[in-house]
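Re: the request from the purification team.
They wanted to know what the chain is likely to look like in 3D before they choose a buffer screen. I agreed to run a prediction and write the result into the notebook, where they can find it.
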Amino acid sequence: MSTSDLATPRPVRLDLADVALNGDLSLGADAVGLVVFAHGSGSSRHSSRNRAVAEVFQHAGLATLLLDLLTESEERTDESTAEFRFNIPLLAERVVGAIDWAQAHPATETIPLGVFGASTGAAAALIAAAARPAIVRAVVSRGGRADLAGASLDSVAVPTLLIVGGLDEVVLQLNREAFERLKGPRELQIVEGATHLFPEPGALDRVAQVARDWFVRYLV
């Protein structure tokens, strides 16, 4: 699939129970799966890293939904106080809301769904997987704080891939501990020589490839 064949992202508004969130939905005519992105600390749907990963997914026939887990006013507050980015229950509630939105949306309701989480968004993704086990078919965490999913880790039975940089030592140890608590098919993928945000040459490409393969394996 060439770049010209990729679906053009279109803005969508997710009207959840108590908040409206902005998102970008890329949905090809023959999409074989949908990946909901749960961004990490201080990030948004405009994250260049997540957009690069999303494009790799799209080349594999996967639709993507990138969304802002915070409203514009919350983002402004978070920039100065960081009070929302570690509010895992709030982030998880909104990821669950996005999953429910996708299940109710005519264009995506029949497409198998997975969640891709980064940093604190990974914890929200895992909590959402535990909350919606009949809907979420796979989870991938990129440099994620899986440990922050707390008690929900013990209820995650969907196939879960944890990707961590080999030089991200603290997060790697936290992921090893979280990995032992997962109940379903699981894998811990270490990208050697990479730090937390995978800025090293080729590191993010590796993340995108192994994440793509995981979703294709369990969604298609």
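For the purification team: The chain has one domain: 3-219.
Please add any questions underneath this entry.
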